[in-house]
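Hi R.,

Here are the chain sequences for the assembly we discussed:
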Amino acid sequence: MVIATYSILAILALIIFSIFAKGIKALSWEILTQVPKGGYYYGKGGGILNAILGSLSLASGATFLAFIIGLPVALYINVFLIRQKKVVILIRFILDLVWGIPSIVYGAFGFSMMIFLGIQTSLLAGMLTVTLFILPIMIRSMDEILRTVPIGLSEAAYSLGSNKSELAFKIFTRQTVSGIITAILLSFGRAIGDAASVLFTAGYTDNLPNSLMEPVATLPLSIFFQLSSPVPAVQDRAYASALVLTIIILLVSLFSRGLGKRYHKTKINF
Amino acid sequence: MYLLNRIQRHRVNYTWMIVSLLLVASLPFLLFLGLYLKSFLLIHDYHLGDLLFSKVWKPGSGKFGFYPFIVGSIWVTLLAMFISAPISLLTAIYVTQYTQKRFLRIMHPAIDILAGIPSVVYGLWGILVIVPFISHFVGPLFGVQTLGYSILAAALVLSIMIIPFILNILIEIFRTIPVELKEASLSLGATQWQTVKSVLVKKALPGIIAAFGFGLARAFGETMAVLMVVGNVVKLPKSVFDPGYTLPALIANNYGEMLSIPKYESALMFAALVLLAVSLFFNLVMHFFIDRYNKFSA
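And here is the predicted structure of the full complex:
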């Protein structure tokens, strides 16, 4: 038992250490601030700014869309359907099912939708696919937080004459700010790290993202492509890109922990 | 101050909620329908049994046998479960029963970070560490010549990826077991380990099975990390040191070429459909177990 527990911690340390050790050597200012130049994939100059910005814009767009769709659903479950226990259980069940679907299936689905609608591989297509993919994560984690809102708070709001949507959007959201932000950051982390769903839909380009309808580079794919190159210098850059991606993920997770603690004070306790 | 009055705002918000809810609730059906329609071309022309159990994969000449990929996926998944299941179960027991609360506070961020690392990074780490480890160390140890890109490498990387996932569920389950049960057992003179073995684990069994099932479903669908270390050779693997090919890797590897042949595209969509079906099936069954667990513990 002890061995199992500490081996997990050791493996985590090993992963972080090897990614840092390999990546830090190849990491330079040039990689972070330039787009790939001609012959980049044969070891010539340039950087992965296209992928960094592409990933950030794709992930934030998808997170935003998922938030717009996800928040009302989570609120609806917890405010309007609070008495229909069976319906709530069914919806949660469907969400859990959808959560379990592998991201490559979303990628394939997004791809077929893309052809059906006649759009090319683009930032928009990638964004929509990733939105579908993170939607269940977003809703379920908000739902878990909204469940904890005490019934007394709803009763107090009703008794002051508020209607259900006011209760939902003004009281519930305020009570659970920290949880909602955590849910958003969690989804963002998922969105930025996933490769399989954007492989078909977002495409790849050496340019900076400048339009919704054009292909966009993403960090996971840039790692993947650079790693499959036979040139050692390009592989080194893959390690650097992996380091960048890992750092972004670590920052997001750190940030969500910090925020969670900070907003805890605004909570009303019954 | 507001453009609309209260009632109108309520209506807007309500519509917004309902539309979003319908969209989300119809998602699994939409996914299934979309993929089914896309793979209809293939299902229509071939016998389903032939597709799943034929060994010949030659998309150029119209032969689509998914058997090697399915077998590859099953090998990798089961092996990964075999490695990760005992580790995560033991860790969950240790963390919840044998240590203080403070330890869990160190463990939780660690699990979260492990769960948050993107699969591409796991794949890269697999190439850096696991693949050389297998080709230089594990292979010679068993007297096998191997490049390292193998079923075993994929299973090892995969098991590390799903451990945090299973562990989270298990810790949650062990924490919901009422403490009175443990106290009753201890007061009857059972040792700590006896209590764990014959009270806690027995009590939590449906939950444990469900956690493993969710992990299994997750492992079955994992794409990038496996793709990067499994070797991608269309052949029935004979041992764990052989390279293999999994269903998700098949989809991801061929997305570029598939557009030229309609049946090829249809075949890849069929692979996605199989993945979707397996994932939905496993999650359904495991929810049944979780429900049983919840009923008993209530």
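The beta strands of chain B are 57-58, 63-64. The mean pLDDT of chain B is 84.

Let me know if anything looks off.

Best,
T.
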